[in-house]
Write a structure and sequence with these properties.
Helices cover 39% and strands 16% of the residues. The protein is of the alpha/beta class. 44% of the residues are buried. Bound molecules: nicotinamide-adenine-dinucleotide and uridine-diphosphate-N-acetylglucosamine.
């Protein structure tokens, strides 16, 4: 797995290790943390290799493969994850997000990997005309991040069609849960709001808070990843969301309530280029991968608050 030390990656490692798999984590620890994997660090079935996916994965995997045999499946989560960073640094984004995916696919082609799963994003759709957004909606990404994720999807399709590599793409909506890092101003809104509400500090909403998102709990995302890594479903691209829309204001109020009601809710200017509504159509996730993201927001928030 690439990006296995990160938020979604480390939860996926937990599930794979609990079910007895041998797991190799390739990560450059730029946003990922060793602490996220602390539970397994001395476990003989977990191997961690420091590696920048933008520079290739052959060298990092070679000693592990020599000792334990070939890589069977790759879950590719490593990425430069900030949309805002991608706007300021499009070349870095291309090298890590698109380039990293090509390196993974080249490895898969050369080594006979049975399945590649890509973490893509709702960002591939850009501004959406019809909600809930179906996988067949036009792809009009509005950031380098969205462009590189979409280019990665096209590369998966190409490697499937031309080189016979089995692939599945998952388009994550707004994922949240424990271990999501709140430390950057561009961190996920739930990680920021829960961090502030725990400390009784004000929550800052950009705009009036009527903008909506499809917030999906990380445990449900892990189930989608594990299903996608199985056999079948090649050349499928599926949204990973709940099919339920929540406004940022409603989210803020719920979090404040869960934390005892002390934090104030404040408002600031809307973010430039903000998408106003986001909601996934989830039929394909259910029909092709057999997964329903069933964790209710309030339950997922309780799990996040711990
Ligand atoms: P994260 O930052 O916690 O995880 C990303 C991981 O990739 C980190 O461990 C980081 O150290 C690693 N990484 C970054 N650059 C790397 C490089 N060049 N080489 C090797 N490793 C590198 O973020 P996350 O939320 O867990 O995101 C996982 C994946 O899901 C990413 O591909 C992201 O684009 C995608 N995604 C996330 C969301 C969300 O809401 N969190 C939404 C859509 C898509
Ligand atoms: C998120 C992901 C992005 C992914 C997309 C897919 C993060 C950081 N970004 O983008 O990678 O491609 O989902 O759907 O996970 N907000 C506030 N106050 C805050 C922080 C945010 O009001 O302190 C608002 C924002 O203005 C926005 C909403 O909350 O309306 C969600 O913001 P954010 O969590 O940053 O995610 P997205 O921009 O939707």
């Amino acid at each position: 797995m690439t990006g296995g030390a990160g938020f979604i990656g480390s939860h996926t490692v937990d599930r794979l290790m609990e079910t007895g798999h041998r797991v190799v984590v390739l990560d450059n620890f730029s946003t990922g943390k060793r602490a996220n994997l602390a539970r397994w660090v001395d476990h003989p079935m977990l191997h961690i290799a420091v590696c920048d996916v933008g520079h290739g994965i052959f060298a990092a995997l070679a000693p592990i493969v020599a000792k334990y045999g070939p890589v069977e499946r790759i879950i590719h989560l490593a990425a430069q994850v900030s949309v805002v960073h991608s706007v300021a640094n499009p070349l870095v984004d291309m090298q890590v997000n698109y380039g990293g995916t090509l390196h993974v696919l080249e490895y898969a082609r050369a080594s006979g990997v049975q399945k590649v799963v890509l973490a893509s994003s709702a960002a591939v759709y850009g501004d959406v005309e019809e909600l809930p957004v179906s996988e067949d909606a036009p792809k009009r990404p509005v950031s380098p991040y969205g462009i590189d994720k979409y280019a990665s999807e096209l590369a998966l399709d190409y490697y499937s069609a031309v080189h016979g590599v089995a692939t599945t793409t998952l388009r994550f909506f707004n994922v949240y849960g424990p271990r999501q890092d709140p430390s950057s101003p561009y961190s996920g809104v739930i990680s920021i709001f829960t961090d502030r509400a725990r400390a009784g500090r004000p929550l800052l909403i950009f705009g009036d808070g009527t903008q909506t998102r499809d917030f999906v709990y990380v445990g449900d995302v892990v189930r989608a990843i594990i299903a996608a890594a199985g056999d079948g479903n090649s050349r499928v691209a599926a949204n990973v969301g709940t099919g339920a829309e929540t406004s940022v204001l409603e989210l803020a109020r719920t979090i404040v309530d869960l934390c005892g009601g002390t934090s104030k809710i404040e408002h600031a200017e809307s973010r430039a280029g903000e998408i106003l509504k986001s909601l996934a159509r989830v039929d394909r996730l259910r029909e092709q991968l057999g997964v329903v993201a069933e964790t209710k927001l309030v339950d997922g928030l309780r799990l996040t608050l711990g």
